[in-house]
Amino acid sequence: MSYIVANNVVKEFGTGDASVTAVRGIDLTIGQSEFISIMGESGAGKSTLLSMLGGLLSPSRGEIVIGEVDIYALSRDKLADFRREFMGLSFSLSSWSLI
27-40: b or e for each residue (b if 16 or more CB lie within 10 Å)? Predict the structure, then answer.
């Protein structure tokens, strides 16, 4: 069973000619007890993707569903409640963990 699903997730920063696409059309499915690695070159969008999966950064387009909840359809307060009750994030200099 899928626990985390990302459908056509895009994140753009800036507007017009100054626009930068950090994440481009990601589709991702992660099972409930599954461990994954996200690898890529510096500047490839890994931290941006993890920030969106962790409910910290809204995607420009697409949806992220965690445990059957479309987290970016929630109000800002409900998203904060969701993060507090159902997620854990661990930050370090060299890696991220979504718990």
Answer: eeebeeeeeeeeee
CATH of the domain at 24: 3.40.50.300
Q: In one letter, which amino acid is 42?
A: S
In the predicted structure, residue 91 carries a pLDDT above the cut 80: no
Closest CA to 23 of 49, 54, 51: 49
Where is 98: in which H helix or E strand? strand 96-98
Strand order in the sheet with 69-70: 20-31, 2-13, 61-66, 69-70
pTM, entire model = 0.85
Q: Tell me the pLDDT band of 5, cut-offs 50, 70 and 90.
A: very high
For the chain, report the end-to-end CA distance as a whole number of angstroms.
17
Number of domains in the chain: 1
**Other Cβ atoms within 10 Å of 21 Cβ, number:** 14
